[in-house]
Amino acid sequence: MDELLEQFLIEGRDLVAQAGDDCAALVRNGSTGPVIDSAFRAVHTLKGSAAIVGLRPMEAMLHAAEDLLGTARSAGAAVDPERARALVACIDQCDRWMDEVAAAGELPGDAAAVGAEIGARLRGARSDAAKEPAPSPVDSRWATELVEEERAAIATAGAAGRRLTAIRYLPREDCFFAGDDPLALVAAIPQLVAVRVEAREPWPALEQLDPYRCLLSIQALSSAELGDVSPVFRLIPDQVELAAVQPAAASRGQAAPTAVAADPTIRVDAGQVDRLLDLIGELLVARNQFGAVAGASLDGGLDGELRTSGAAMDRVLRNMHRTVMAMRLVPVDRVFRRVARLVRDTASRLGREVELEQQGLDTTVDKAIADALFDPLLHLARNALDHGIEPPETRAAQGKSPRGTIRLSAGSVGSELVVELADDGKGIDPAVMRRLAVQRGLHGAERAAELSDEEAVQLVFAPGFSSAAEVTDLSGRGVGMDAVKAAVERLGGRTVLASRPGEGTTVTIHLPATAALTSVLTITVAGERFAVPVEAVVQTARIPAAAIRPVGTGQAFVLRDTTIPLLALADLLGLQADRCEGDRRVLVVGSPVGLVGLVVDDFSSRSEVILRPMTGLLSSVPLVSGTTLMNDGSVLFILNLSEVIG
Amino acid sequence: MTIRAEPDVIRLVGQCGAEDAEALLQLLLQQARPLDLTRCEHLHTALVQIIWGSGASLAPGGAPMLPDWLCQLLDRSEGPPARTAI
User: What residues does the HPt domain cover (chain A) (predicted)?
Assistant: First the structure.
C-alpha cells in the first residue's frame, strides 16, 4: 500500500474518533461552542486528508458535514438533532470506508451513491443547499496573494494556468535544535516554481546574531500536486500550511486550500515496541546470568561493588521495562468506538432502539489487551442486542422506555482493568437455563433443579451451551459465551455475569492491567518444568502421605478444616509420572467447584517474567496460555490452570 | 573540517551543518572575508542566516553545488534577506 494512504489510515482513525465523539455529544445534548469547533476541525482535516489520497466520495460527503458544522459554528447555533444524527452516520461511514480501504485499497463501488445520500441528509432542508460546494472558509488569502505576486516566476517556469500548491512555512525559532534545516526542506519540494524568504524581524547585527535561532519565514510555490508536496513536511505539520490553488480560481482571487493537520506525537510501529520489550527481556536474562556467575566467582573484596552495580543495573532495567510498557498503553476508547459503531449498525438491522453509554474512555490498557478485547466485547454487545434488549413495542408494553440502554464502561481497580457491558434488556431466566441444561445433557434433571439462580445463569458459559435453536444471523456465528470466557482467560483474566430477569444482564471482565509482566511459579511435573501464574495459586503445601485419604475413586486431604480433592497434575497433562511415596508437594488452586490440590514433583521460587502469548498455529494449543524465556535461556510453557482442571 | 579559514577567504567544503554555525560566526566576526562555496555541497539554514548577517560576498566561482535559488538568495550585497523569487 502506498505510504501516504497508510499514513491516512492511521491518522484518519484518530480524526474519525475525535469527530465521532464530538458528533455523538451533539446528538446527546445539542451542544454549541467548543464541541462544534472541535468537530469542525476534525472533519475539516479528515476531508483534507481524504482529498490528498484521492478518496473523492469521502471528501464530498465530509464537505457537506464541514459546511453544516461551519454554518452552525459561525451562527453560534446548535445542530438540529436530525442532522446531528446524519453527522454520526457520516462519521460511521468514514470509519467503515477506512476498513474497506485498509482491506481492498479502494472505496467500494457504491461509495459515491452512499456518500451522496448521507450528504443530502446533512444538507437536510437547508434552502441554500449548494449545487456546487462553496470553497471552505479557511484563510487562504496568502496563497492567492502569493500566486498573484509570483506571476512572473510562474510564467517563467511554464506553469501558467496549471494547478499549483502554495506552501507557507514558518519554522519554529528553535527548530535547528530539533535537527530541522528549513531551506533543505524547501530544496526537497518537488517542481519548485518560486521561493520567498523573509526575515521575521529586522535582521540583527552580526554581533547580536544568535546562530541557533531561526529568523526566517518562507513561502513557496510548486507545480506538483499537494499530495506530492505534503510528504516533505510530514514531520513538521504544525509549522506548515499547504494550499492547492486552482489556476482559474487563483485569477479570480479565490483559492480552495487544504490545511494539513498538526500532530505533536510521533508514531512508532507497534512491532518495534514489542521488539524493544523482547530485548529488555533478553537483557533481564543476561543480567540474571551475570548475577549468578559473579556470585559464584566472588572473592570478598569485589562483593560490595558488584552488588552495588548490579542493583543499579536492576533499577535501570525496571525503569526501561516500565517505560516501554507505558509506550504500549492505549486508551480503551479505541476498542469501544469500534464496538459502538457495530452496536449502531446492528441495532438498526434488528429494529432495536438503543442508547449506548460509554464510561471510562480514557482508561489506558496494554495494546495487546486492547486488540484482544475487541472480539469478546463485540460478541457481548451482539448478545445484548440479540438476546437482551427487547423490541421497542415489547419494552413499551412492560412499562420500560422503548429505547434500550447498553452501557460500556472501563476502569482501573488496583492492578486490574475492569471492563463492563451492561444492558437493561430482558435478562436471563434461571428457569429457562435449568431446562436447557437438561435438554442439552449438561446436567441431570435433579442436579439442574439444585442449581441456585446465580449458578443457573452461569450456564451460558458452559461449552456448547448455545445451540442451533437460538442461532440467529447475528450472534450465532459458532462462538458462544464460552468463547468469550476462553478469550478473556487467555489474557489472564476472568469473566463474571450477573443477570436479573426483566431487568438486564451485566457482564464484567477483569483483566490484569498489563499482559506482559507476570509473576509465575516454576514447577516440575514428571521431570519437566512448567510455570503457573502466581495469582492462580491459592497456596503451596507439603502434605504427608498419611494425610491423604481415598475418597471414592480419587484422593483428598484436609487443609484447615476443608476437604480438598487431590489430583495429579501429571495425569491431567497426560504425562507419565512415577508414583511417589512420602510427602507430596501440592499446589492449591481455585476452580469453579472450589479448591483443588494438584500434586507436582517440586516447586521453586516465584519470578517476574515477560509472558509471550501463543501466536499463530500455537495459539490453539490447549492448556497453555503462553511462553516465557528463563534465566538459563530455556523456554517455559505457562499453564492455564483453569483449562487444565476443567 | 568543513570550514577552513585562509588569509583572504573562508572556504566551506562538503556538507556544512548547523554544528559549523558557531565557528563560522566567530571567523566572520574576527575578520570579514569573502566566502568560497565552490566545493560546498550542502549549506545549513543556520549558516545561511550568518552569511546574510555578515554581508560577506561570495568568492568567484559561486556555489555550483547548491540549488540556483539558494545561490540567488546568497549572492546579494545588501545583507539581510528581503524577498527573492526564482
Answer: 1-105
**CB A184 to CB B81 under 8 A?**
no
Half-sphere exposure of A598 (CA within 13 A, CB side): 30
A517-645: CATH architecture: Beta Barrel (2.40)
The answer to whether B48 contacts chain A (CB < 8 Å) is yes
CATH of domain A330-512: 3.30.565.10
A554-593 pLDDT, tens digit per residue, is: 888 888 888 889 888 888 888 887 766 778 889 998 876 7
| Residue numbers in B near A193 (CB within 8 A) | 86
Return the residue in B25, B40, B43, B69 with the most chain A beta carbons within 10 A, the one to mutate for interface testing. B69
Compute the average pLDDT of residues A156-160: 78
How far, in Å, are A2, A323, A587, A600, A625 from residue A531 at the CA level? 44, 26, 12, 12, 10
Phi and psi angles of residue A170, each rounded to the nearest 5 degrees, phi first: -110, 90
Total residue length of chain A: 646
For chains A and B, what is the number of CB pairs under 8 angstroms?
Answer: 85
User: Which A positions 201-230 lie with beta carbon below 8 A of chain B?
Assistant: 202-207, 209, 211-212, 214-216
Q: Answer whether B84 sits within 8 Å of A197, measured CB to CB.
A: yes
Q: Rounded to a whole number, what is the distance in angstroms from the first to the last CA of chain A?
A: 45
Nearest-angstrom CA–CA distance, A469 and A479: 14
In chain A, pLDDT over 70 holds for what percent of residues? 84
Q: Where are the alpha helices (DSSP H) in B1-86?
A: 21-30, 45-54, 68-74
H runs (alpha helix) in A76-110: 81-104
Fold of A3-123: Four Helix Bundle (Hemerythrin (Met), subunit A) (1.20.120)
Least Cα distance to A642 among A571, A604, A593, A608 occurs for: A593
Distance of CA A54 to the CA centre of its chain: 27
Confidence of residue A435 (pLDDT cuts 50, 70, 90): confident
Q: How far is CA B25 from the centre of its chain?
A: 11
> What per-residue confidence (pLDDT) applies to A517?
59
Whether A358 has a pLDDT exceeding 80, the answer reads yes
The mean of the pLDDT values for chain B is 82
List of chain B residues whose C-beta atoms are within 8 Å of the C-beta of residue A181: 17-18, 44-45
Q: How close are the terminal C-alpha atoms of chain B, in Å? A: 32
Residues 6 or more apart whose CB falls under 8 angstroms from that of A339 comprise A374, A377, A378, A381, A408
Question: So where are chain B's domains?
Answer: 3-74
